[in-house]
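Here's my example:
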Amino acid sequence: MYKLFIKRVLDILVASIILVMVSPIFIVVFILLSFANNGKAFFVQKRPGKNEKVFEIIKFKSMNDKKDASGNLLPDADRITPVGSFVRKTSLDEIPQLLNVLKGDMSMIGPRPLLIAYLNLYSEEQKRRHDIKPGITGWAQVNGRNAISWQKKFEYDVWYVDNCSLWVDIKIFWMTFMKVLKRDDVSSTTHATMETFTGN
């Protein structure tokens, strides 16, 4: 009952309320990133959702598109702008995903939607993370976010699929709020962003 109906109703209510509350911040961040990224405030990318159905995720663009002499994008650490760094550390880059929640592509809480390129790299157990809608935050995010290994992250994702409930979602929502306040686990220990998943 919760997964099939109540969760979706709560997603719409919570996403709508938060979007209205943060709309002034949304506008300010949009303007700042537009200046920092030559008019490009948003980052849009195709990601696999529930049952691996592809959708377009929307985030604030925290990195510019600078390339090296060969035309290849510079490393993430070299492309994160000062404004983008602040936006990432405060998790403000996630705000536009509220639109994905309202559209029904995502939930407020669930496994984070990753790259399409990873689909063929998952084990059968890891693929189960797609049995539920992806979320803006999730069990893996409140238990380490970018500071834990891919294997551990997938274990947390599958655990959530098996244990999704109103109580678990309330717990994750509260833990997320505390993580954002403390700015914990934004980066991995070796990269500015989470390193690429290359398989098991």
